Amino acid sequence: MEEKTFQCPYCGVGCGLYIDDRGRIKGDFQHPANLGDLCKKPIYLPKVLDEGRLGKPLYRESKDRPFSEVSWEEAFTILKSKLTELSPKETYFYISGQLLTEDSYVINKFVKGLLGVNNIDANSRLCMASAVSAYKYAFGSDGVPCTYEDIDDADAFIFVGSNAAVSHPVLFKRVLRRRRKTDQMVVITIDPLETETARKSDLHIQIRAGTDTVLLNSVLYVLHREGWLDFRFIDTYTEGFDEALRVAQDFPPETAAQICQIKEEDIYILAKIFAQSRKLISFWCQGLNQSVNAVSKNLALINLHLATGRLNAKGCPFSLTGQPNAMGGREVGYLSNGLPGYRDVRNAEDRRFMEHFWNVDRIEPRPGRTITEAIDAILSGDVRLLWVVCTNPAVSLPELDKVKKALSKVFLVVQDAYWNDTCRFANLILPASQVGEKEGVMTGSDRTLTLCRAFKEPYGDSKPDWLIFAQLAQSMGRGDMFPYEESRDVFDEFKLTTEGRLCDISKLSYEELPARWGKRWLYEELKFPTQSSRARFYPAKFTVASERGRFILITGRLKNNWHTMTRTGKSPELLKREIPPYVIMNPKDALELGIGERDLVKLSSDRGSVERVVVFGNIKRGHVFAPFGYPYELAEPINLLISDRYDPISKEPDLKFAGVDVIKLKGAEEIGKGDL
Ligand code: SF4
Do 193 and 625 touch, CB atoms closer than 8 A? Predict the structure, then answer.
């Protein structure tokens, strides 16, 4: 069995799985993230591994021509000539939290080391960038401060902007198991929609979208008013409390309740739980991260932990990672400002270390463009080659009409295991091996590294992503920088960059995985890697975008499919009950517009329009919810309606807040019944 263990390639819980002798996927009982548990998504993995795959490199110089098969040698010649013809600044690389750590490390080294530019970003920009910024501000470093074990003796859980029952199911089941063991426990969900997580909670605070900063500031206000602050903790281990409190004082409960459209009493309950529970974990995800006010939202929540001393044995602010290896990507520094070992291009000492380590003259001191900035740079002609690896921006980026124009204009390389919507715009397609076909490491949400072993041959002529870049470098005459024969060589190089860092894995080998970096509590001594060694409060100012339209559109995940469905969408079992593409409306709002359940409606924003079938649900009035992942063959993606504005610090887009109007197109009787 040991030879066939791997980490689930879907959400960031990072469940350990194995494939048994009959080809069935099972949960690994030895793995600390899931203790043998799993959800429905990976069960169908063997069925879809070979469906719709890319098996050969494909090329066309002009996008109106059909693709022709080319050899890998020809593909490398094309790439070499493009990379020679263009300056490095005219190239851009957009990679993924679904890659193995070895893949991300090599691609990052290729771009920041060999090409000498920071024009690289990952789809974590749409996902975890805000949490990273917040952790770095509050604690001086990225990294979740506690681990999953902490769930097992906590007595209060808050889910804010997270539908964990759907998006992180094994973790949520662990919370429910804890609840079954004690009646002294409370689960609270803060969300405009009554999600599955909300339904299973003791209290659902149905907040107006975008106003979390107000609510969380108001909780700090109440903690102060009631004398529930832990001043010993604040004075000994933190700084910046007075400024944070000054901002919070703008939001007494009566004001906050009006802005958030919730009950004052609920603010008081939240404050009381922060003050009086024994151990409180607050989980958050994209509801806080994908926002124009995201870093403030994150830090307003962390402020509450600092104000009540809720770290280590007393609790933890726990950001849930969206993708299976976003944590590994953060460790290798694959965003436009990062360097391996939790380093930053803006820090001269960090640059010097990596310049010496990679034996390169110079690493750019300024962060490169983020992906949304790169889209603008393509349209203005500043970026002329875009290389997309293991992600599907034609569906997942905001303001998709603009994205489609950029993808049509640029010389586009798509490196992926599957044919996806972005391939339609490509000039060159490179087939990549995927989970089960290559070996390497992933890190789950709680810092546990898992070795993913190969259990089948690569599909067609596909290659591991790290190998594609290493071989290209070789053909460019720089094989000396990438002297790897197998993924283990890459891991052994990468891990040396972490020596002495917070995320130190320098002593780990493949044989010792799964293993977690850092102690169970990352800041056990309550000493933080900030200048003063204290954790930092943040004055969490509130902003919200102004949008036209009767409704606020919020977006999120489907239960059994994952991201843009390139893999899960091949399974009829997983698609059942998730098509036709739908929008959730409050029945009162719908009936006011003459819309009934299962009617077909048009949702329009200033940026575009899409059609969806209506499902009634308990969503806050004036809001609608639509899942984001449907590919074009099922429907026009919802991100056509979403703006590409972003948080000023994390530059993460405001993916969950668009003003829309809704009009009825056809009655339910005209469109027939789907599976919903
Ligand atoms: Fe995979 Fe996440 Fe389900 Fe675990 S909870 S099996 S990591 S999708």
Answer: yes
Compute CA distances 610 → 18, 101, 362, 615, whole Å.
40, 37, 47, 15
Which is the closest atom of ligand 1 to the Cα of 562?
8
Alpha-carbon span 512 to 542, nearest angstrom: 45
Alpha-carbon distance values, 12 to 2, 329, 549, 639 (Å): 22, 12, 34, 22
Going by the DSSP 8-state scheme, the letter that residue 23 receives in this structure is S
Beta carbons within 8 Å of 658's beta carbon, 6+ residues apart: 547, 549, 552, 553, 605, 607, 641, 642, 643
The two most distant CA atoms of the chain are separated, in Å, by: 71
pLDDT in tens, 149-183: 999 999 999 999 999 999 999 999 999 999 998 88
What domains sit in the chain, N to C, each tagged with a CATH number? 4-48 (2.20.25), 58-124+325-513 (3.40.50.740), 129-319 (3.40.228.10), 551-675 (2.40.40.20)
Q: Is 45 in the pocket of ligand 1 (CB under 6 A)?
A: no
Residue 201, phi then psi, degrees to nearest 5: -95, 165
Q: What is the dihedral of CA 527, 529, 533, 534, to 10 degrees?
A: -80
The candidate with the shortest Cα–Cα distance to 417, out of 395, 392, 450, 439, is 392
Q: Confirm whether pTM is higher than 0.85.
A: yes
Q: How far, in whole angstroms, is CA 564 from its chain's centroid?
A: 13
CB 38 within 8 A of CB 44: no
Check pocket membership of 38 for ligand 1, CB cut-off 6 A.
Answer: yes
139 lines ligand 1 (CB under 6 A): no
Smallest Cα–Cα separation from 165: which of 617, 438, 556?
556
Q: Give the span between the Cα atoms of 559 and 201, in whole angstroms.
A: 18
Q: How far is the CA of 413 from the centre of ligand 1 (A)?
A: 30
Closest C-alpha residue for ligand 1 atom 6: 38
Question: pLDDT per residue over 51-82, tens digit each?
Answer: 999 999 999 999 999 999 999 999 999 999 99
